[in-house]
Amino acid sequence: MLQYFARLSPARKILWCYLCWWVHTVVHHFDPSPRLWITSVGLSGIIGLALLLSTRTSSSGTTRLDRWQIFRLFLMPFCVSSFAALVKDEGFVLIFPPTLKENLGAWAVIAVFLLVTTVLKRVLPVRP
Questions:
Q1: Rounded to whole angstroms, how far apart are CA atoms 8 and 12?
Q2: Which of 12, 96, 110, 111 could form a disulfide linkage to 8, CB 3.0–4.6 angstroms apart?
Q3: What is the band of 103 on the pLDDT scale with cuts at 50, 70, 90?
Q4: What pTM was estimated for this model as a whole?
Q5: How many CB atoms lie under 10 A from the CB of residue 38?
Q6: Which string of DSSP letters, residue by residue, matches the chain?
Q7: Could you tell me the pLDDT band of residue 128, with boundaries at 50, 70 and 90?
Q8: Is residue 23 within 8 Å of 86, Cβ to Cβ?
Q9: H or E element: which one contains 60?
């Protein structure tokens, strides 16, 4: 697992940062309403399938995706829809919470993640 984080590409690091932001928001604005989470799962299924269909097929043939790419195609709509539901009427500006403390907390989580991945990259031997 440490090797995985040590070898993350810049694009994957960005995706992990998105996830860090989402987790931080969920922790601070969690709503136990089953309706919110069931709706998010439903939207994830519908939109994830559409994304899967649109990324796998083209005029030049079928593109093969690995299981993690497919998982992300379903995870992202779940995160977006649940995030939107959790922050509704909470005073957010785009994705940013209304308080400096919460913004700094989210940025701190991301900074720690990036620091850890940078240290791992320098400390762990490179394996193919």
A1: 6
A2: 12
A3: very high
A4: 0.88
A5: 10
A6: -HHHHHT--HHHHHHHHHHHHHHHHHHHH----HHHHHHHHHHHHHHHHHHHHHHHEETTEEPP--HHHHHHHHHHHHHHHHHHHHHTTTT-BTTB-SSHHHHHHHHHHHHHHHHHHHHHHHHSPP--
A7: low
A8: no
A9: none
